[in-house]
Amino acid sequence: MAELKIPDPAAGRAALWLRLGGVLMVAGVALAVTAYLVSHGTRDPLLQRDAITLGLGGVTAAVAGSALFLRYSLTGFLRFWMARQSYDIAQLADRLLEKEVRK
To answer: Which parts of the chain span the membrane according to its record (predicted)?
Structure first.
């Protein structure tokens, strides 16, 4: 892989989005669970509706965080896989050309 000398474009930015996705997942789940407990712990309909709204916001944040985390974690893996695949195909082509030249 060192022979390919492929620079990692904006590695810092991808790591930031990856961490943000993880934080959103955890914070969204925590917010949703807290809102659920608040909405079931009171008889005041106004407070229940506020808690339900916060719970939906938490679920939305958790889903968005999961999508960000999945996208940026797979990006790193697939970038490595594609570089490795390209390198292997280039090596195979070189070996096949050597065989053709020898014949």
So the answer is: 16-39, 51-74
DSSP state of 8: -
Q: Indicate the domain borders of the chain.
A: 13-102
* Amino acid at the residue 75: T
**Is 7 a residue whose pLDDT tops 80?**
no
Residue 1 and residue 52 in contact, taking contact as beta carbons nearer than 8 Å: no
Task: Report the C-alpha gap between 2 and 43 in whole angstroms.
Answer: 64
Report how far residue 92's alpha carbon sits from residue 34's, in angstroms, rounded to the nearest whole number. Answer: 56
Distance, C-alpha 94 to centroid of its chain = 36
CA 87 to chain centroid, in Å, comes to 25
Phi, psi of 14 (to 5 degrees): -65, -40
pLDDT category of residue 37 using cuts at 50, 70 and 90: very high
42-69 per-position pLDDT tens digit:
999 999 999 999 999 999 999 999 999 9
Q: What local confidence, expressed as pLDDT, does residue 81 receive?
A: 86
